[in-house]
Design brief:
Blueprint (H helix, E strand, L loop, with lengths): L3 H12 L4 H12 L2 H4 L2 H18 L5 H13 L5
């Protein structure tokens, strides 16, 4: 079963400077058929990320803004 922590691990790698194409591939592996293969929390998380990916795809969000959104809204503040 796919968990939110698995999705967050992929997001974290991307936010720290990972390749965008690698992120899409790894995220897609986890989010494919998420309703059947994921926990309810993972389904919700994947849905949020997919919405922002769609915004970026159509040009309503830059890649830099997407990374910031992932960092701030999905990963949360980093400890000091």
């Amino acid at each position: 079963m796919v968990s939110p922590s698995q999705i967050r691990d992929v997001i974290s790698h991307y936010v720290r400077g990972g390749d965008a194409n690698e992120f899409v591939l790894e995220f897609s592996k986890l989010s494919f058929d998420i309703v059947q293969r994921g926990s309810p929390a993972a389904v919700e998380l994947a849905g949020k990320v997919e919405c922002k990916l769609a915004e970026m795809y159509v040009g309503h969000l830059t890649q830099a803004a997407f990374r910031l959104w992932l960092r701030d809204e999905i990963l949360g503040p980093t400890p000091v």
